[in-house]
Structure formats: C-alpha cells, structure tokens
Amino acid sequence: MKEPVFLEPWHAQIFALTVHLSETGVFSWPDWAQGFGAVLAEQGLDKELDGGEDYFLAWVEALERLLTARGLAGAADLARLKSDWEAAYLATPHGQPVRLAQRS
Amino acid sequence: MPHDHHDDDHPHSLLPPDPALRVRALETLLLRKGLIDPAALDAIIDTYETKIGPQNGARVVARAWADDGFRARLLSDATEVISEMGYYGRQGEHIVAVENTDETHNIVVCTLCSCYPWPLLGIPPSWYKSDAYRARVVREPRRVLADFGLELPAGQAVRVWDSTAEIRYLVIPQKPPGTEGMDEDALMTLVTRDSMIGTGLARVPARAPE
C-alpha cells in the first residue's frame, strides 16, 4: 500500500518552495539543513516531535527565519500577507477561486 | 491546533489551517520579489509525487544484485553511477552505497534533521523524521530494529550511518535466498523502501508451487 507523499497541500508547497530557493541559489542546501536542524532541536526540547505535522510546522518556521535573516522576508510583511489571505478566504464564496485583493 | 469544523453550507471558502496561510504569505512575498517561479514549484511537487520514489532505489539495488561489475562501481562511486541512471541529486549531494553482509548490517538516520537520498527513495516516511527514531537509532539500534520486527543474528554487527546535507546513504540489502536466475525487473519487486534504509530486509520471493 502506498502512503501519500505529502499529507497536506501546504506540506508539499513549503517543501517545493525550499527546494526551489536552494536550486536558484538563494541559499545552499547545507545552510537550509543547519537552520532546519536548529529549529527541530529547539522544538524537540519540550515535546517529542512525531515527524508529521510538527515536522512541517518546524519546516515553515525554519524557512521564515532563514529568509528573514537574509533580509528577504520581514516579519511584518509576512503577518500582513497572512491576514490578507485569511480575509480573502473569508470573503470568497465557497467554490470560487480565492484571490488576494490588491492593496491600494 | 485542531482544524475548526466547518459545515457544508458554510457561505465562504474553507479557511485553511494556520500554517497553510503562513506558507501562502511566504509564497506571495517571494513571488512579488521575483524570487520564485510558480511553474517550477508545481514541477517540483509533481516530480516528487509521481516520478521519484523507492522504485528508483529498488532499480539500483536490483541491478547491483544482478551485475557484479555494476555493484563494484556502485560501491566505489555511487554518485556517478546513479547520475548515469538519471537519478540526479537536486541538492548536489553525494550518495554513498553501503552493502549489508553476513558480518555487517547497515542502517541510515539523519540526527540533524531528515537528510535522505531523495532521488532514490523520494520523501522520507514520518518515522524517519521523528525524534524517537533520530535519537534512538544511534543509541540502541538493535532495539529500534526489533521495533521494526527485525531481529539480527548476534554475530552481525550493526553500523549506523548519519546522513548530512552533503552525504546521503543507500543501503544495499542482502540478496534474499531463492532468487537465482531472477532478472532485474523481478528482483526489483523484492526491494522494499525500508530495506534500503536498513530498518527491513529484502523480501524473500514466494516459493513456486511444487
């Protein structure tokens, strides 16, 4: 029996984003592995990570930190975009494609 | 955080879980900065979902079983041999093949995060990424193997290989008995993912009816 490769679409998205950024040279894979390992070690201190959802949450955290450290993503920009996406989902009728409203 | 329950008659689109929104925010930001190409992202996902998986590693192992010359080259320079077969490492990592023998059983882990020979085995299973496996396999490999249902003879040493971002390991499991005369395609069906990580053995072929 074949397990699904990615359990959630966002697992696939964050994975692809990271592979793509390393392939285009935004960071090297060893740099990524180091940052990711650090986040895993930090988060594993108070609870046991199960390699599923927790693992990809640590992945998101590690990529945000790496890009922030390189000046490519600011925490405030990310927070604003996240709330914009949330608003877009809530404002889009079910079944319609969800698009981000352009801020004027 | 558990997902909120949404009724089917909800008027708006289902709100994705919090981390999914963080990923969308990252994507949007990088797209606006011109740092990513959405088509390349889709291609990466498609490759890992449909083209890359343990069948690639199984092909390599089956060929090594069937062809001594190939096996010798694989053990001396797996990166080159595997690239020739079209299984190229996306991160430019080196692949090292380690062969199980009567004397030594090999098992692979990544204690740092989850480095894994993607081009050969695809995306690692959850247990490979778990703290439990990553921490225990170095300390008590035989007990971890026992949890996988694998009891090794006392005289067979266990060697644990810790992967890094630069070096990934592929275990060449021992060729099972009863495989004489089988060709590469038939041998491939005996090579499981776990046998190439070292937490399992290759399957023994079903005996032909007498």
Automatic annotation (TrEMBL), chain A:
InterPro entries attached to this UniProt entry: CN_hydtase_beta-like_N, CN_hydtase_beta_C, Elect_transpt_acc-like_dom_sf, Nitrile_Hydratase_acc_put
Pfam families noted in UniProt: NHase_beta_N
Residue ranges constituting the Nitrile hydratase beta subunit-like N-terminal domain according to the UniProt record: 2-86
Cited SUPFAM superfamilies: Electron transport accessory proteins
Cited NCBIfam families: nitrile_acc
Protein name: Nitrile hydratase accessory protein
Organism of derivation: Puniceibacterium sediminis
TrEMBL record, chain B:
Known EC number: 4.2.1.84
Catalytic activity: an aliphatic primary amide = an aliphatic nitrile + H2O
InterPro entries: CN_Hdrase_a/SCN_Hdrase_g_sf (IPR036648), CN_Hdrtase_a/SCN_Hdrlase_g (IPR004232), CN_Hdrtase_asu/SCN_Hdrlase_gsu (IPR023900), Nitrile_hydratase_asu (IPR018141)
Annotated Fe(3+) binding sites: C110, C113, S114, C115
Gene Ontology molecular function terms on file: nitrile hydratase activity; transition metal ion binding
Pfam families in the cross-refs: NHase_alpha
EC class (word): lyase
Superkingdom of this protein's organism: Bacteria
Protein name: nitrile hydratase
Organism, as annotated: Puniceibacterium sediminis
Lineage: Bacteria, Pseudomonadati, Pseudomonadota, Alphaproteobacteria, Rhodobacterales
